[in-house]
């Protein structure tokens, strides 16, 4: 599944909603990171340039995901949180199509500028030949903040998950 997602077949099989969302975590660690530039498409055909981030086995201290969504009763915030006191959040074969990513990072055995078609740190996550890529053997990012168009994973474990939909609700950051 990860190779299908990474090669664009899965991304092409579903259109992103046209609404980006926030993702935040106090700390993300993983064995393996692979990234390259990709384009997501919304149902209206618009392209959204993203950094496809393939993360092998992610462990997050907590997670917050929030999106503002227009409804007939006004703009609502769709917010999902998990982790924290309930325990770690984990995900395998996590692929995030993000516009940006910020935090304090440590990349082990980083390779920046590697041809995207030769990435090998996350199983199946390879980009087009001749395109810019980067990878790292292990990562740690503290104070994660990202705006993303999609996130998919083979297996999410969300301890203490809470979902809230509210008018005027607070986003992650």
Could you explain how this protein is built, in words?
- The protein has 173 residues and is mostly beta strands.
- It has one domain.
- It is 6% helix and 64% strand.
- It contains 2 helices and 9 strands.
- The chain has helices at 2-6, 9-13; strands at residues 21-41, 47-60, 62-71, 74-83, 89-108, 111-115, 132-152, 155-157, 162-167.
- Strands 1, 2, 3, 4, 5, 6, 7, 8 and 9 form a 9-stranded antiparallel sheet that branches.
- Strand 3 (62-71) and strand 4 (74-83) form a beta hairpin.
- Mean pLDDT is 90; it is low at 1-13.
What is the fold's blueprint, element by element?
Layout (H helix, E strand, L loop, with lengths): L1 H5 L2 H5 L7 E21 L5 E14 L1 E10 L2 E10 L5 E20 L2 E5 L16 E21 L2 E3 L4 E6 L6
Antiparallel strand pairs: 1-2, 1-3, 1-7, 2-5, 3-4, 4-9, 5-7, 5-8, 6-7
Helix content: under 10%
What is the percentage of strand-forming residues?
Answer: over 45%
What's the Cα radius of gyration?
16 Å
* Uncertain regions spanning at least 5 consecutive residues: 1-13
- Report the average pLDDT across residues: 90
Chain oligomer state: single chain
Features of the shown structure:
173 residues; 9-stranded antiparallel sheet; 2 helices; globular
Brief synopsis:
By secondary structure, this protein is mainly beta.
């Amino acid at each position: 599944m990860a190779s299908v997602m990474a090669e664009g077949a899965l991304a092409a099989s579903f259109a992103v909603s046209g609404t980006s969302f926030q993702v935040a975590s106090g700390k993300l660690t993983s064995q393996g990171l692979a990234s390259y530039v990709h384009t997501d498409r919304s149902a209206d055909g618009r392209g959204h340039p993203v950094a496809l981030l393939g993360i092998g086995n992610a462990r997050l201290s907590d997670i917050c995901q929030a999106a503002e969504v227009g409804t007939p009763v006004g703009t609502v915030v769709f917010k999902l949180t998990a982790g924290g006191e309930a325990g770690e959040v984990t995900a395998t074969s996590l692929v995030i199509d993000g516009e940006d990513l910020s935090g304090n990072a440590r990349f082990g055995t980083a390779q920046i500028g590697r041809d995207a078609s030769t990435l090998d740190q996350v199983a199946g996550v390879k980009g087009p030949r001749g395109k810019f890529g980067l990878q790292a053997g292990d990562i740690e990012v503290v104070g994660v903040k990202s705006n993303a168009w999609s996130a998919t994973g083979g297996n999410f474990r969300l301890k203490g998950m809470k979902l809230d939909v509210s008018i005027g609700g607070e986003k992650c950051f």
